[in-house]
Structure formats: C-alpha cells, structure tokens
Automatic annotation (TrEMBL):
Species this protein is from: Nocardioides abyssi
Region span, Disordered: 303-398
Membrane topology: Single-pass membrane protein
Domain Band: 21-179
Protein name according to UniProt: SPFH domain-containing protein
SMART domains from the UniProt entry: PHB (SM00244)
Domain of life: Bacteria
Length: 398
C-alpha cells in the first residue's frame, strides 16, 4: 500500500512537470525564442503556447517595446584640441527577435560602442563653438550611422539625443567671462541709447521752452511798445494842452514890459543860488528891464488899470486827451497831432521871448499901435506910451 502511494506521488509530480514543460505563457510585447536540441526552432508569440517537453526549450524572452538607454559620459576631442564630456540617450526597438538573439551577443553594448565612435568622428570635425551650438547636427549624424549599423541586428533606432556637453572648467570660466563681457557690452549699449534718447528729449524740451519764452517775450515787448506809444501820445497831448493853456493865459493877461521886469527881479535870487556861483553874468535884456522898471516905479500913479489892445482867444482844443483808437492807429493822425504840438510850442516860445522875434513882432506892433514902418526899433516899447484908440467915426488918415 505504501509502495502504491509512493508511485502515485511520483506519477503526479511527473505529470505536473510535464505540463509545466509543455505549456508556456509569453507576456504581451514579448517574444520567446525556442530551441530544439540547441537549434532555433520557432518564435513564440504572446499568449499560451505548447512546446514539446524536454525537447524544445525557450532560450530567450525578447522585449519588443521601445527602450531607452542612457550611456555614461564619453570624452571627445574637438577640432581645436579641447576635451569635452558628452552624454547621449538612445531610443531603440527590437523588430526582429531572432536577429537580435543570434546576430549579436549584446546589442545594447554594441549600440553604446557605435555611439561613442560615431560621436568622436562627428565632433572631431567641429570646434568647441560649433559643438555647443550644433546639437541637431550631431543627433542627425548619430541616428544615420546607428540605423545603418543596427539594421542587420534586428534593431531600429528611433531617436538619438545629446543630454549634455560639458567643456573643461577653464573653458567654462572663459566662456562665462566672455558672456559676462557680452552682457556688459549690451547693457552699456542700451544705457548709451537711453542716455541719447534722454538727451534728445531734453534738448527738444529746452528748444520748445526757448521758443515759447521767445514768443512770450516778443508779445510782451510788442504790448509794452504799444503801451509806451500810447503813453507818449497822451503825454504829448497833455504837454500840448498845457502849452496851449499857458499861451492862452499869456494872451488873456496881455503882459507889458513892467511884468517882464518884475519877473526878472524874481529870477535874481535863483540865479545867485549855490555856493559855487562866485561869478555870474547879467544879460543885456536884464539891464533894459531894470531901466523900464525904474521908469515904471517912478510913474506908479500913471499905470493904466487896463491895457488897451485886442483880446484874441486861442482854441484850447478838447478838454479830455484823445486816446488812440487802437494799437494800429493811422500814422497820418499821429503826424498831425505832432505838428499841432510843435506849432503850439513855437508860438509859446515866440511869446515868451519877444526880443528874439523882434522882426516878426514889429509889423504886428505897428499894425496894433499905429506906428509907421520907419519907427526906430532900438526904442524900448515900454518907454513909448500907447496911443489912444482911434475913433471909429473919424475918417482914415491918408
């Protein structure tokens, strides 16, 4: 009974082992390489597969998914004899499990070695600047070489990427200094451009300010000149009216030689004023005025109460000064006003100084007093008493 149980147990183990050797399950995206007596028999697809136990053997289980392999940094010398460390990443996929199994012993190591050698060939023809800026060129070159080399191995290279390119520390320091100098240069250029724009804007602002100030000064000077012009016109009109008033008062008062002599006596203290007036000259008219004053004072009882002669009124003009109609008054009106003022000044001067215009006043005095043209002009009119007025009923003297 015991022997039977042992045999049954051995038979059960044999059956289980036989089933395990017969039924093989291949996972998804995998491929099983079956060998019979050491020779390739078939490739098992994914799923449940039956093989001959103890004769067929699943030697390799190949992964058919795309794989990523990162290789360690490799030292590469550039064309300008600088050593750089380059890290690469390979994306590949097994498309023929039989070729990947029997054509090469270790396809990952083979891809790594081909990558290193190809990378040295490509980078050896570039300088450091090109190496740092030509990643796409290096990637394309590596991919082309790897596709051509790994095609017979049943491998397809999808992508090749350069992960990093590390130049020597001294080169890094030099490059950092160069980049820093380049940045400083750009910063200086931008600063200079900003200062230039600021100076241009400042100059334009000063220009506009100067133009506005000049325009303001011009308008101010024009208004000031117009105001001065109007003030001068008003001042001239006032002086003209003052002269006309004085001249009118002189005509209304009808002054004689005695008044002139009295005025001379009043001027004597003013002539002698001042400590520096040690010597002063008495004009000849003053002596004649004194003589007339003496004769006048000796005949105080004979001074007439009213001087005979015609009274002539002088046109005083408007009582209020005539303001200009505007800043652009006609020059003809201004010239007429100036001529009227000058004429009034001349008339007042001729009335205040009768001696200087004796020839002009001789004819007027002869016509007023009845003197003939042959009268001696050297005789002072003060010494000659006025003639009585002519009777209007008397016949004219022939």
């Amino acid at each position: 009974m015991t022997v039977v149980l042992v045999l049954l147990a051995v038979l059960l183990v044999f059956v289980i082992t036989l089933l395990a050797k017969t039924v093989r399950i291949v996972p998804q995206a995998r491929a099983g390489i079956v060998e019979r007596f050491g020779k390739y028999k078939q490739t098992l697809p994914a799923g449940l597969n039956i093989v001959v136990p103890f004769i067929d053997k699943v030697r390799y289980l190949i992964d058919l998914r795309e794989q990523v392999v990162s290789f360690p940094p490799s030292s590469v010398i550039t064309e300008d004899n600088l050593t750089v460390e380059i890290d690469t990443v390979i994306y590949f996929q097994v498309i023929d499990p039989v070729a990947a199994t029997y054509e090469i012993a270790n396809y990952i190591q083979a891809v790594e070695q081909i990558t290193m050698t190809t990378l040295r060939n490509i980078v050896g023809g570039m300088d450091l600047e090109q190496t740092l800026t030509s990643r796409e060129t290096i990637n394309s070159g590596l991919r082309g070489v790897l596709d051509e080399a790994t095609g017979k191995w049943g491998i397809r290279v999808g992508r090749v990427e350069i992960k990093s390119i590390d130049p020597p520390p001294s080169i890094k320091d030099t490059m950092e200094k160069q980049m820093r100098a380049d940045r400083d240069k750009r910063a200086a250029i931008l600063t200079a451009e900003g200062q230039r724009q600021s100076a241009i804007l400042t100059a334009e602002g000063q220009k506009q300010s100067a133009i506005l100030q000049a325009e303001g000064q011009r308008e101010s000077q024009i208004l000031r000149a117009q105001a001065d012009r109007e003030a001068a016109i008003l001042r001239a009109q006032g002086e003209g009216q003052a002269i006309q008033t004085v001249f009118q008062a002189i005509h209304d008062g009808q002054p004689d030689q005695s008044l002139l002599a009295y005025q001379y006596l009043q001027m004597m203290p003013k002539i002698a004023e001042g400590d520096a007036n040690k010597v002063w000259i008495i004009p000849s008219e003053f002596n004649e005025a004194l003589k007339g004053l003496g004769s006048t004072m000796s005949q105080l009882q004979g001074i007439p109460q009213e001087v005979d002669g015609p009274r002539t009124r002088v046109d005083m003009g408007p009582a209020e000064p005539q303001l200009p109609r505007g800043a652009n008054r006609d020059d003809g009106e201004l010239s007429e006003a100036n001529e009227a003022v000058q004429a009034a000044i001349r008339e007042a001067a001729s009335a205040a100084e009768p001696r200087s215009s004796s020839s002009a006043s001789a004819s007027a005095s002869n016509a007023g007093t009845g003197l003939e043209a042959g009268t001696d002009p050297s005789i002072d009119p003060v010494d000659v008493p006025p003639e009585p007025p002519a009777d209007p009923a008397a016949p004219p003297v022939s």
